[in-house]
Structure formats: C-alpha cells, structure tokens
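ok new one. same drill as before - structure tokens go in, u give me an amino acid for every spot. 228 of them this time. try not to just spam alanines like last time pls lmao
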C-alpha cells in the first residue's frame, strides 16, 4: 500500500486520532442514552425501531463531520449543498435511510479532502455500528401483542364490561386513544393488550364481537405493526 495512506490525513493541522476515537465513542454513548430514554418513555402508536437506531447513528456521523470540517466554512457550505441536492432528488421515508445517505456523503467528503485515515476510521466505526443494530435488534420492544380498535356505541360508564373482558384475557391493557364522534352515542376506542395466552386471540375476538355495544371491531398483531 502506498505511503500516503499510512501518513494519515493531509490537512493544515495534524489530526488527533485519540481525540477522534474519543469523540466517536462519546457520541455513541450519548446517543445510546437518548435512544434508551426514547424507548422507555415513548407511549404512542408510532414507535419506530429504525428511528431509535438513527438516534445513535446521527451523533456519531455529526461528530465525524465536525472533525473533518475542522472549522472550515467552505467545506461546511459544500456539505450542506451536497446533502440538499440529494434530499431534493430523492424522498427518503425511513430515518435510517437518511442517516445512511448522510454517512456516505461525509465519508466521501473525508476522502475528497484527503483525510484518508479519518475516512477509514469513520467508515469502520459506522459499519460496526450498523452490524451492532442488525445483530442485537436494538430498539425492538415487546410491550403488547395486539391492538384492538372498537366502535363503542354505549356510554362511557358502561365500559366496565369491556374492561372486565380485557382483564380476563390480558396481563395488561392500555387505552391508547378515545375519540367521540358526532352522529351516534359512543366512542372510537383503541386498546393495546399484552395477552395472557397469544394462542387464544381468536377466542378474545369472538367474545368482543358478541359483546353488547361493540358496533365495529378490528385488530392488528404487534408483528404486523408498521414502523412509521
């Protein structure tokens, strides 16, 4: 291999590789803390494992960006222009896809500014991070087995009968949303259930269909839930 690779980065000031690794590791740890906080505190229906992984990857990529730019305003504007062009030409629906695009742009920027060693270290760290996400399935949560959507046409005070049914079939249940509609008495309800026995889900659905007050019923298994 040519000598230019072993000489490291070609820049006005030598790169501190110890500081570079410390920056990458610290940003990884801080991102992990934020991701764990998001996992434990998120309570909506739109939880996304991909977004959780992005919360770890983005600080690492940004730390690499700052080390490569090294207060160079021209390079900063160049990076913004490149990313804006890619974002304009393609619509990325997944946050992790966006992070991948940003990562390859930053690595290309590192190679184009002759920071070869920084590019190799950064590339290796990001690849290791993505294999970590893939191998550990980091960000996966199992807080419920089933989402049940119900159109309830009785009064709110009569929900006790429905709740008794849920308690009999589930370890825990949570009413994620309750919305009243004009034109009829009752509510549109959405429940999340952690079942006592997932094999008996059909029995639960049959009892719900036969319950007085349930006008419309639909369900979604946790395995079929879309990551939005």
């Amino acid at each position: 291999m040519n000598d230019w690779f072993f000489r490291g980065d070609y820049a006005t000031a030598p790169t501190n590789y110890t500081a570079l690794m410390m920056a990458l590791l610290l940003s990884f740890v801080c991102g992990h803390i934020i991701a764990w906080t998001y996992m434990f505190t998120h309570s909506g229906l739109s939880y996304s494992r991909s977004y959780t992984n992005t919360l770890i990857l983005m600080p690492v990529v940004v730390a690499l960006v700052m080390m490569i730019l090294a207060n160079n305003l021209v390079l900063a504007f160049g990076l913004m222009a490149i990313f804006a062009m890619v974002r304009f030409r393609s619509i990325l629906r997944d946050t992790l896809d966006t992070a991948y695009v940003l990562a390859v742009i930053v690595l290309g920027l590192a190679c184009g500014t002759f920071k070869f060693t920084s590019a190799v270290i950064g590339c290796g760290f990001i690849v290791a991070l993505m294999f970590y996400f893939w191998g550990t399935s980091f960000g996966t949560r199992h807080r419920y087995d089933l989402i049940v959507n119900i159109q309830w046409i009785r009064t709110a005070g009569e929900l006790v009968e429905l709740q008794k049914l849920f308690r009999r079939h589930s370890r825990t249940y949570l009413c994620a949303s309750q919305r009243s509609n004009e034109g009829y008495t009752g509510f549109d309800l959405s429940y999340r259930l952690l079942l006592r026995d997932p094999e008996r889900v059909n029995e639960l659905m049959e009892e719900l269909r036969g319950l007085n007050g349930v006008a419309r019923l639909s369900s979604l298994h946790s395995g079929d839930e879309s990551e939005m």
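The mean pLDDT is 77. and btw The domain at 146-224 is CATH 3.30.70.260 (Alpha-Beta Plaits).
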